[in-house]
Here is the input.
Amino acid sequence: MFPAMGTGRGIQVQEETGPDQPIARLPASRTAFIGRTLRGPVNQAVAIRNFADFQQIFGGLWQPSSVSYAVEQFFDNGGSEALIVRVQNGARPSTLSLPAGSQALRLRARRPGTREFLRVSVDYDNLPVDNSENFNLTVQRIRTQGTLRVEDQETYRNLSLDAQSDTYLGAFIADSDMIEPLFPLPLHRPDLTPDAVTGLPTGYVYSNSDGDDGAPVTDYDLIGSSVNRSGMFAISSMDEFNFLCIPPISRDQDIGPSTLMVAARFCRERRALLIVDPPGTWATADDALRGLHEWSFASEDALMFFPRILALDKLRGRFEAFAPCGAVAGMLAKGDVAASVWAAAESDEPILRPGFRPVCWVADDRRVRLALHGVNTLQTVRSPVDSSLKLRTLAAANAAEPGWRYLAQRRQALAILNSIEHGTRWVAIAWPQHDIAGLLEKQVRAFFSELHAAGTFGEHDAADAFYVVAKRRAEREGNGSGPRDFHEFQFLIGFAAQHRGQFHTFRISQSLLGSQVRAVTLNQLSDPRPAPRQIRPLVARPAEEARP
Here is the structure.
């Protein structure tokens, strides 16, 4: 392991990372979903790998929850890993009441909603007979009220209601995932919990029926707060994601333009792509073409597939129209298995799995016109249209780089950037007396060489396929002595663009405060590639409207 001087405050640095470790190719189809669910933690990103996980943690399908159907369609169409963020609007948690003499110890569920079923039990096991102060508390989350199927459990021993005690309940259960105390606490410890049938102290008290699922969420709930890490900003706690899906607020209400704008910017900062659902008013291809003339949203960090899809609503027992973002993310993830984003050739056109179909037919000429606006068309069979009609981003003609109009090129670039940013975080905690620049250049060059050998950069020669130039930026802290003198490390990378001799160039900064990846435009008088056996000086300036 490379010697380190500490752990980052703004970044997560794995102990095994270092210049002697190869940069790993990160997955490119991890999808984040945000929306209202039946149960589960609020404003917390939870990783799941199948719909059974979603059912257990978030309650499964629920008609007021468009995100529950999107997640189901994601896994049905080939998705394998998702992040779920539950948001709510006025949902209220249920309470539990434990008798304590003439008073009661009142607890409240951490998670709001009517489907957070808890039960608690009090016992005095293994406590001295003359101890009238302490008690044991067992908390269980169960599948449904009255069932014996336990999904989670927490046990607290030797609790006390005395604020001066080392096992004071108010502090001891502060980290509980299931309950929190309601004040004031009773004067005496809670009574033993009797079994309703036998009367023995082996029973449970179940949660009251005072929980509430709240109102439909709003754009404000979906956006959330960057300060509180709520809404979409809850994803910031996770290291990487590649797609973001925010399904409609309801079956009849699309998300607003403010959510689209904030989500696109959030994805740009996180080097991910926003999957935008076509508005519900676009019932036909002609509707979509007319609507696109007034469509003010364009971004190389977003993509759209038209039209919406018909799928079986298992709760209603009939086919219904759904926004396609979940199915699209699943199809793209499935396509990555057959043809990785690291390959030079573009993967085959994504196809809906059997059981799903577009709500309307799109003629080939309409498909071409939609593509010129950056809108892709959902298919159930391979299209006879010329294969040169590649999948697009929503940048259309507004892309900062011509290649960013195409989904495959944009995804490949983001995958390269994410992998290098993640694999070089060790420089933020490295001892400055090491030859960091030389070690980093060697590590990144090895990564690029591996991609080049695998054909990622097509027919480009190595000299025209990539470069890396490392430099150290000094920022003194404190008295200017010690290993923290050099706080930030910067380096430039470039990899082949569409035309030979042109590069996509980025500056990557690593520090204890976090990582930054920024597109730059090079000084035309400086050759970005290092001369043999030396590193030539290179001047870079931020590109206007450049996006990482």
